[in-house]
Structure formats: structure tokens, C-alpha cells
Write a structure and sequence with these properties.
382 residues; alpha/beta; Rossmann fold; 2 domains; six-stranded parallel beta sheet; three-stranded antiparallel beta sheet; 9 strands; binds zinc ion; Sir2 family transcriptional regulator; Sirtuin_cat_small_dom_sf; zinc
Length: 382
């Protein structure tokens, strides 16, 4: 099987959104359009109709739906790529090979964690929960690493395409540790940073859900849970080694032994050849876990239509799922403020007045549309 690494998102300009039907340019028109979308009979163009739940919808979500929870998205009005042109996420190879890059990453993540912990699912996630309980949703595929879907609707099958921030994983033995536990270790190893963080908390920087206000108070939380701290002394930051590898350094596949060295406090030392912990998210340049990729594809194949929310499909792994749905003949709905990559391809699924359209599109925030849709639809279970 070929597994492609996550590439840096497509950053070219996106064409302006084409609203389908035209009435979906207003909020009430969009609500009507998506009420029809979710309740239409299975599409006659659907292939593979002998399997799956063809009257149900699979969701594909992105950072845009978490903006209302106080996280930045990437390309929205206040998106990370828009407000900070120099922003560049860390690449897997940098993280895996450079001690200095890891110090910088973990320092920023350490400061960003309490804010992420405080952030809660918003009305879009609750609407997904309600739609799921009423029988409309087969599963959710998300690019988000904030765990809001699993918090808001743990009963709905969910695939976290790019992993999750709630755990860290060892690059050598693949053991996972909860991020909350890991935060405690970072706190012990970095008392001065912990003091700084406590000060930020005291100043109330984390007390606001308003990202503008948070930025004004000197802190900016990116969607992957780190913050920008100009001129911070990252090189002083220490991080622990994997406890399992420290206890028993693993053998590599070729039989050679590894070593895990720590300082007197337990901080990982660069003389080590194993035991590096990484957030359990898929970094740029890193392969998506093959089992996750398959689960996402099965989620598409197991549903009769696809609803895309809060993503411009800039990441190839997300676009590929939409392309898969398109090729299967699935009706596709998009709720996303602003343009979407390859929109002209998807528009071909809108066959105008004479044939059945299988494309619905509005350019609005999901929290202005989906909660009303969810509350108006009847339960399918009785
Ligand atoms: Zn390990």
C-alpha cells in the first residue's frame, strides 16, 4: 500500500465560492437547502449501493468549525496563515531529528495547553450530536486535533484523520501517555516556564473565549495547540523521555540496541538514540497511520452523502476523501466560509434544473446553519 505523507497545505488563492442553490446565500435559504440535502432520498447516481447506509451522511470537518470555540483556523479572516504570514508549522523530520526544534515545540505547546484544555465544543459540535442521535449521521471524519467531536458526541463513530493532541506518543516504542500527564512532567522540568504560565493564567489571558481579546492580552493559540511567544528563551526548555524506553531501551528492527540518557531531573539528553515523545498528531511530512486512512475511506464508502464543514480542503488527505465521494456519485454539501479547493470539479455534480443536483453549497459559518437544521429535523428512529 502506498501512503503519502501529509504535505504543506495548498496555499494558492482559492476561487470565490459558488453558492448552490442561489437561495443558499441567505442564512434561511442555506438552512432550507441543507434540510433538503440531509433528507433527500439516496442519489440515483450513487455507486456501491449494495453496501452502507445510503440515506445517512458522513461529515468531513476542519478547523473552521472550531473557531467558535476560540481556536484559530488557518485561512479564515483571523486565520493563522492570514494574520501571521511567517507562520510555518513544524515538520515531522525537524521534530524527529532536532533537539532544538523539539524544545521550541514543547515550550510553545506547554504554554498553549491550558487554553486548549479550557476550550470547549461549540454549537456546531452539539448540532452534530443531535443530528447523529436523530439518525442522520453515519460517522464523522475530522482533520481537527482538538478532540471536540469525541467530547461532544462520543457515541458517533469518528475518525481523527490527523490524530489528536490529548496524547503524546513515543517515536521508538509507540507507547502513548496522556497529554495532561505529560504537562505535569514539563511543569516539573521547567519551573521558570511554569511560573510564567501561572502568571499568564493570573492575568486572565486564558479567561476569555474571544480569540481577539486573547491576542490583545499577548497570546495567540494556533489550531494545533501552540502559541506564538516572541523572543522566548526556548533553548532553556527541557522535556522528559518516554518512561518505558528509559526503563528498557528498545531494540531496533535490525537488532541494534538503543540508549536513553536523561539528566538528574529526568530530561531527555541528545546523547540518546530513542525515547522521544511526540504529540499524537500527524505532523506535516509525516505519514497518516494506514489504519486511520482506511477507516476514513470506509466512512466515506459506508454513507450515502457527504457534508463538508469548516475546511477549504487545502490538505491533500482531506481533498482525496471528497474526491472519493464525488467519484462514488455521492451528493456533496459544503458549509464553509470562503473558497474551497477544486470547487469547479465539485460544481459539475450540480446538474442544473433538469437532473437531480447532488451539490449544495453555502459560504457561511457552520454555527449559523447547522444548529437550526438539527433542531428542525425529526428523529428517524421511530
Ligand atoms: Zn518509548
Amino acid at each position: 500500500m502506498t501512503v503519502s505523507a501529509i504535505r504543506i497545505p495548498f496555499t494558492g488563492p482559492l476561487p470565490p465560492p459558488v453558492i448552490v442553490p442561489a437561495s443558499a446565500s441567505s442564512v434561511s435559504g442555506a438552512i432550507d437547502a441543507f434540510l433538503s440535502f440531509l433528507t433527500a432520498p439516496p442519489s440515483p447516481y450513487l455507486r456501491g449501493v449494495d453496501v452502507g447506509r445510503n440515506s445517512q451522511t458522513v461529515l468531513l470537518t476542519g478547523a473552521g468549525i472550531s473557531v467558535a470555540s476560540g481556536l484559530s483556523d488557518y485561512r479564515g479572516k483571523n486565520g493563522t496563515y492570514i494574520t501571521n504570514k511567517a507562520y510555518r508549522p513544524i515538520y515531522f523530520h525537524e521534530f524527529a531529528t532536532r533537539h532544538g526544534s523539539r524544545k521550541r515545540y514543547w515550550a510553545r505547546s506547554f504554554i498553549g495547553w491550558p487554553g486548549l484544555l479550557k476550550a470547549k465544543p461549540n454549537s456546531t459540535h452539539w448540532a452534530v450530536r443531535d443530528l447523529s442521535a436523530k439518525g442522520y449521521i453515519s460517522s464523522v471524519v475530522t482533520q481537527n486535533v482538538d478532540s471536540f467531536h469525541s467530547k461532544a458526541h462520543p457515541e458517533t463513530p469518528s475518525v481523527e484523520l490527523h490524530g489528536y493532541l490529548r496524547s503524546v506518543v513515543c517515536l521508538s516504542c509507540r507507547n502513548q501517555i496522556s497529554r495532561a500527564e505529560y504537562q505535569k512532567s514539563l511543569e516539573k522540568l521547567n519551573p521558570a516556564w511554569a511560573e510564567f504560565l501561572a502568571k499568564m493564567v493570573d492575568l486572565g489571558v486564558l479567561d476569555t473565549d474571544n480569540p481577539e481579546e486573547r491576542r490583545r492580552r499577548g497570546m495567540k493559540l494556533n489550531p494545533d495547540g501552540d502559541v506564538d511567544l516572541p523572543k522566548a528563551p526556548y533553548s532553556t526548555f527541557r522535556y522528559p523521555s518516554c518512561p518505558s524506553c528509559l526503563e528498557k531501551p528498545p531494540r531496533l528492527q535490525d537488532g541494534t540496541t538503543t540508549r536513553v540518557d536523561v539528566d538528574s531531573d529526568g530530561a531527555w539528553l541528545p546523547t540518546s538514540t530513542a525515547g522521544i515523545l511526540k504529540p499524537a498528531v500527524t505532523m506535516f511530512g509525516e505519514n497518516i497511520d494506514p489504519s486511520v486512512k482506511i477507516a476514513a475511506e470506509e466512512a466515506i464508502d459506508d454513507a450515502g452523502r457527504l457534508l463538508v464543514m469548516g475546511t477549504s480542503l487545502a490538505t491533500y488527505s482531506a481533498w482525496r476523501l471528497v474526491e472519493r465521494a464525488y467519484k462514488r456519485g455521492m451528493p456533496i454539501g459544503i458549509i464553509n466560509l470562503g473558497g474551497v479547493r477544486n470547487e469547479s470539479v465539485l460544481l459539475k455534480a450540480d446538474n442544473g434544473k433538469n437532473m437531480v443536483s447532488r451539490y449544495v453549497r453555502c459560504s457561511l459559518n457552520s454555527d449559523t446553519v447547522l444548529p437550526s437544521v438539527a433542531s428542525q429535523l425529526p428523529s428517524l428512529s421511530h
